[in-house]
Amino acid sequence: MPYRLSSLSRPKAVAVCAAPVAALLATAAFAPLPFSVAQPGMTANVLGENKGDPVITISGAATRRTSGELRMTTIVATGPDAHVSLPDVVDGWFRTDRAVMPRDAVYPSGDNVKEIQEHNEATMKASQDAATQAALTYLDKDADDIKVTLKLSDVGGPSAGLLFTLGIIDKLEGDGSGGDLTGGRVIAGTGTIDAAGKVGAVGGVALKTQAAHRDGATVFLVPKAECADARSELPKGLRLIPVTTLKSTVESLVALEKGTGSVPSC
């Protein structure tokens, strides 16, 4: 006769089976996952100082006294070797001040912390060189006569390129008629730039708008391709201006400052 569980023994059997399943689920819930959790990072006024040193130093040409601020923005993410578990991912998924990203997208250069740091420093240096060349080309100034030094501690990557470029232009010529590119405002933004003045996308813009608003910005310059992301968690009172090239960015800022002409919006 086949063996049958009695009605009294069945709950005990279920309980015995449930115990290892619960343990397995608990283990899975706290197992490391291939994600990073990012949040709004620091911002820095490229027209001012960072940790006691001027961000932009120019020699070989007269510079202007500027007003207002041009703030580059950052995000901070859990490290490549950080333990990110399912509860961390779920928490980040439902918070507007957090973003869950594939770890490979945040750290494409690998898992070695030293290699990542070296990669970020190299891309920052390349970004600074491109920013200087783009600014001097835009102003039709000879790079052999003017030396620009850019210094920003503890920040890596290329996403400050656009703001560096605008800062150099503001310090050398402003809006071209004696005014500031900022119009006295706190303007923040993000975007890569190449030597020809083309602005590129960077990622993390929804978090960067929050960092900008937190630090007093009322205007945010965003690569046009990332308008939708920037709008998704846009803080109240922060105006988005989409940008594609250095020339159009300067034109938008001048139009905003003078109150003439059209200023694009996302």
UniProtKB/TrEMBL annotation:
<feature type="signal peptide">
    <location>
        <begin position="1"/>
        <end position="31"/>
    </location>
</feature>
<dbReference type="GO" id="GO:0004252">
    <property type="term" value="F:serine-type endopeptidase activity"/>
</dbReference>
<protein>
    <recommendedName>
        <fullName>Lon proteolytic domain-containing protein</fullName>
    </recommendedName>
</protein>
<dbReference type="InterPro" id="IPR014721">
    <property type="entry name" value="Ribsml_uS5_D2-typ_fold_subgr"/>
</dbReference>
<dbReference type="InterPro" id="IPR027065">
    <property type="entry name" value="Lon_Prtase"/>
</dbReference>
<dbReference type="GO" id="GO:0005524">
    <property type="term" value="F:ATP binding"/>
</dbReference>
<dbReference type="InterPro" id="IPR020568">
    <property type="entry name" value="Ribosomal_Su5_D2-typ_SF"/>
</dbReference>
<dbReference type="GO" id="GO:0004176">
    <property type="term" value="F:ATP-dependent peptidase activity"/>
</dbReference>
<dbReference type="GO" id="GO:0030163">
    <property type="term" value="P:protein catabolic process"/>
</dbReference>
<feature type="domain" description="Lon proteolytic">
    <location>
        <begin position="156"/>
        <end position="249"/>
    </location>
</feature>
<dbReference type="GO" id="GO:0006508">
    <property type="term" value="P:proteolysis"/>
</dbReference>
<dbReference type="Pfam" id="PF05362">
    <property type="entry name" value="Lon_C"/>
</dbReference>
<dbReference type="InterPro" id="IPR008269">
    <property type="entry name" value="Lon_proteolytic"/>
</dbReference>
<keyword id="KW-0732">Signal</keyword>
